[in-house]
Every structure is written in C-alpha cells, then in structure tokens.
Amino acid sequence: MSDLSVSTELNAVTERFRQAPKQYDAVLLASFGGPEGQDDVIPFLRNVTRGRGIPDERLEEVSHHYRAFGGISPINQQNRELKAALEAELAARGIELPVLWGNRNWDPYIAPVLQDAYDAGHRRMLMLTTSAYTCYSSCRQYREDIGIALTESGLDGKLEVDKVRAYFDHPGFIEPFVEGTAAGLAKVRAELATAGTPDAPVRVLFATHSIPTRDAEAAGASEEEPREFEGNSAYVAQHLANARAIMAAVAPDVEWDLVYQSRSGAPHVPWLEPDINDHLEVLAEQGIKGAVIVPLGFVSDHMEVAWDLDTEALETCKNLGIAATRVPTPGTHSTFVSGLVDLICERTVEQNISERPHATELGPWYDVLPAGCSENFRGAKPVIAENGSTVGTVHEAHPVEEGTK
Fold first, then answer.
1. Is 304 annotated as a binding residue?
2. Which residue of 30, 130, 174, 310 has the smallest Cβ count within 10 Å?
3. Which residues form a coiled coil (predicted)?
C-alpha cells in the first residue's frame, strides 16, 4: 500500500446529488468498442464518425493506427478480461449480479444487449463504464446511448438503467498508477545511471485524451450547483488533482506536466493542449533526459495507448534522446477490479458500502448528474434522465461542429 491520502467525507454538493441504494439485477459494462480484424476497420470508423459525412477515402487515410495492428484494437479483449475479473470478484463476495457487456461502436452493441437483458427478465441495471472522468464523450454520451437504445426499442419505462459515479479519483483507479509511476521512475533512473548520467533530470508526463475546448468547459457545469474548476473545466481539474495525488504519494520533488494526445478534427477547432509530442520537444530543449509517461486518462491499453503513446510518443522520445517508459493502465489490476465492485456496492442495497472514498478534494463525484453537466453541442438526443433511471427530455439542438469528437 502506498502513502496515497484517501478521504471518505462527502462535500455538500455530492450529498445533494447522491442516490439512495437500490435493488439491481444486473451490471452493464459499457465501453467504446473496437475492430477485431482488417475487414472491421472501415465499418468501425463509420460508426465512430456517423453523422459527420466523412467519406470512406478519408477514413482509410486515418485507419493506419488499426491497420498497423492487424486491424485489431486491444479494447475488446481488454473488456472480455475485465468482465471475467468483475464476475470473479462479485462471486468471491457472494454478490449475485450477472455482468453484461455492451459497446458504443462495435459488437456487442449496447442496444441489443439491453434487449437481451430485458428478454432474460432483467428490469433494473447498473451501468459501469470504462471511462473514469467527466466530459461529454466519457459520461453524458453513454447516458445518451442508453436513452436512444431504450427509446428506439420501446423499453423506456420498462427497463431501468443507472450509472455509477465518475470514479476518476477512487483509490481503486489511482493506486495502480501510483504503483506504476514509482516503478517507471525507478526504471528510467536505472537506465540513465547505466548511461553514466544518474543525476540527469527526469519529468513525469500525465497523458490524457484531448477534447474540444468547448466540451472541456462544459464538463462539470451545473445549473443547480455552480462550481469553479481549475482550468475552467472539471475534466482538466480532475486530471490535475489526480496527478498531484499520485506525485505526492510517489515523488513529491519530481516535476510533472499534464499533456494531451489523440487530437482529431479540423485545425480551426480549439482542443486542449499541449500535445505530448510537442511538449517532449520543448522538454528536450530544456535538457530533460528522462520521461515517465503515465496514461492517466485511460482505463486499459486500447489503441490510443498502443499507438499514440507506445508508438508515436516513445518514438519521439527515442529521436530526442530521452530515456522513457510508459506506465501500465489499470486494466485488470486487482486493486482496480476490487474498486469497481466497491463502486457497484455503493449503489446496491445488499452488501452496501455507504462511504465514498476519494483521493482528491474534487471527489467524490455525483451519483446523479446535475442538469447542465457536459452539455451536448452536437444535436438533440434522448438521454437517461438526471435521476439516472428513465429516459429524460431531449436536449436543445446545436449546430454540429465539424471536427469534434
């Protein structure tokens, strides 16, 4: 166990948006999905970019990340392993909740999974997503996916789906990064010592997915309980708070930065910066000789880790003469899996965990999202309501912005 400081006290805002425990009859593991062969790549990318009018020729140009790995994204296998690990942990605790798995963009799709669940007799499900932070694509969009599926299938009012709180600073998610960051620092320092430069400066880079600036500013926004966030965004503030907590536990004197990756879309649309590769060039000019890359924004080693970090960022480090390593994602780390089951137990009547552990002052996050959080700027869609249980009102339509995620 590390020296990570964890609190279980609830702030007033969290208490206001806390949901009473319920009797659930299944868990839905919801994720992004990914192709599992070369023939899947273009159909998958069509799903991801649906509604943007992007031709197949352009999709083929951006498919090389997947093509380089045989057309296979690691994410589906990661989810199979996570599902099995969750089932094992639930069984070990005597919790009889089946775990179903549904994806946003590839088989098994969320809509048929919900239909199958209903046909099997399930009526109240608790959704656990493979996104830990607060923003449109990692939180509200999942709720929209459920809302659309329930509406189009006629299951609205028949099947209830709630979502666990954003778990960005749950110790189960943070502890594996603490462990990995410590090991990463030791590895890079050993490599520098072998090269005869044991005292060379090392920087820790916490990497996460860049998102459009407008989406970032909408993350955490609340019409009912306005809060001010560092960087004018809950998404940014959550990552900064996590990075501080990890470094306080591992190496308080080592300098670190929050960097972004995987930007896509039109150049004129502002996204969060700095890009990790651009920042590495700046660090090299400053004399930094070692880098520990922490994929803080990611639950598992999917394509944006395997390509953007393991391929591009590490190649940038090599070209710049920077000794570097990439820290593992939580994946199926036992502490992470146990923490996810704890999150389930926070919301269940049986084996209930009433405390809400959190490693930063921002947490614990809300069980029930306040109105206005992570607004959808892309168009009107049904969404599971703010109480997380029924299909809510359709959001006001906004013009679709080219190049947004």
1. yes
2. 310
3. none
